[in-house]
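Hi support team,

I submitted a single chain yesterday and got back a structure, but I'm not sure I'm reading the token output correctly. Could someone confirm the output below corresponds to the sequence I sent? I've pasted both exactly as they appear in my results page.

Thanks,
R.
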Amino acid sequence: MSALELVLRQPWMARLGWTLVHFLWQGTAIAAAYAAARAIGGRFLSARGRYALACAAMAAMAVAPPITFLAARVAVAAHAGWQITPGPAWEPALPWLVLVWVWG
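Hi R., thanks for writing in. Yes, this is the structure output for that exact sequence:
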């Protein structure tokens, strides 16, 4: 078994893959909330207020993946004694998604 295969078979690789997949909708939701707040209050906010709003959206995007990764670990630990059915057919591709993401 090569080192690459060994790394790809680690349980945290699948969790990190799911984290990346979940960040697609999380990042979209954060961006939509920012756009809505900017559209509603943009005229009433100063440049400093708009900047603070944008920084808050960026901070939320930076915090979302680690929270999702940790929440996935807790969810797996909570179901450790249960028989879990396999996920989607593309779940084996998640470690490769992580590898491509890290490489990029």
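A quick pointer for reading it: The two ends are 25 Å apart (CA to CA). Let us know if anything else looks off.

Best,
Support desk
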